[in-house]
Amino acid sequence: MRGFYKRPFFAFILFLVTALAVSQEMSPGTKLFMQNEPSKAIPVLEAELRQSGANPDLYNYLGIAYSQVGNFQKSIEVYQKGLEVLGTNKKVLYYNQGNAYYKLQNFEKAADCYSMTIVADPDFSFSYLNRANSYLKLNRLDECMKDYETYLDLNPSDPQSENIRRLLDLLRGEKEFQIAEQKRREQEAERRREEEERLARAREEQERLNAQKRAEEEERRRKLLEDVAASLKQSSDTTNMSAGADDVLSYDDESELD
């Protein structure tokens, strides 16, 4: 995807800077910037912005200069300061801030910045293209495809239009695959849920049968103990012995030995 948008992205930034610069007499910082010397331009532009009545366009030049030297976080801060100043070109600042966020792979913030640019100018086609790229990174395919389609509507003769259309075809196929995959996952989840419910019912039934079996076994043992206890009581009642008359020895007769 990087090679897909690189050429229109940087070409458009140069167009913006040129258009802004020719509309006024260049400051020393702007001249250095236009001479493609961002490292030298940065301190001069910062000094110019500290002066009273500084040209608000300098925020854009300074932010781009920081981006050119690879300090994208600093460029974001410069753009943000510019957005808080009256008279700055908010559309351009938001657009370039979005590009800086994109470079930092903060695609959510980048998409937000491009959205603000579109609010300012709904026909600003490059914001749709870059926001589509951001949405693609975020896997927000519906929004991504919509922005690519809008970009093509606004730029039907774009040299990359055929590549974009091929990409859209791939994205539609990917979307269909995701829908089918989601349906498969839902069906699989439903199958697992039904299987878990079946197993739970089977466990409950087995537990019920086990409990019933234990209760029956306990009742059998209780009955056996009662029967044994009753048998022992009956036996003790019938074994009490008493001496009869025939069993008693009498010593009333005198012994013949006397």
Report on this structure.
The protein is built from 10 helices and no strands. The chain is mainly alpha-helical. The protein has 2 domains: 2-159, Serine Threonine Protein Phosphatase 5, Tetratricopeptide repeat (Alpha Horseshoe), CATH 1.25.40.10; 169-220. Helix 8 runs antiparallel to helix 9 (141-154). The chain is elongated, with a radius of gyration of 47 Å.
Descriptors:
10 helices, 258 residues, Serine Threonine Protein Phosphatase 5, Tetratricopeptide repeat
CATH architectural category of the largest domain = Alpha Horseshoe
Over the alpha carbons, how many angstroms does the gyration radius reach?
A: 47 Å
Q: What is the number of helices? A: 10
Name the shape in a single word: elongated
Number of domains: 2
- CATH top level class name of the largest domain: Mainly Alpha
Q: What structural class results from the helix and strand content?
A: mainly alpha
Mean pLDDT, to the nearest integer, reads 85
Percent in strands: under 5%
**Helix amount:** over 70%
